[in-house]
Amino acid sequence: MHETIERYQQYTKEIQANNPPAEHNMQHLKHEAATMMKKIEQLEASKRKLLGENLGNCSIEELQQLEQQLERSVSIIRARKMQVYKQQIEQLKEKGRALAAENAMLSEKFGVHGQLQRAGSNEERGGVVGSAEISEISDVETELFIGPPETRNKRPPSRNEM
Hints:
DNA-binding transcription factor activity
């Protein structure tokens, strides 16, 4: 039992000898905190300069360095923006291809494939789809009638009939 107690006491003395005293540890932590505070103040001053604040006491060299840093940052930002735009364009093109494929499938399914192709080819050539082709494709009435509803069923005389 005596041996166990002696070993315990010897072990605790070794631990205290190896560990720095708490006072030394506290001083180290205070020094580290002060260093971090200085670093934070420097970063805040740098941030203010980048935002264009407190530039009155800057030399020409500092202002030129700041300008170069901002130009590099802007070029990086523009490159990233262009990359994002290109990705979005590719996604939209892929979506357009998928929609075109779906449109073709639905057109084929409902039997209006040939009629839509003719209308599409006219539009691609820069032409306007004729009213006869529109009436084949759609049941929507597009003529303008003026007057009471009962006269709408009567067809107005054409110029050849007059």
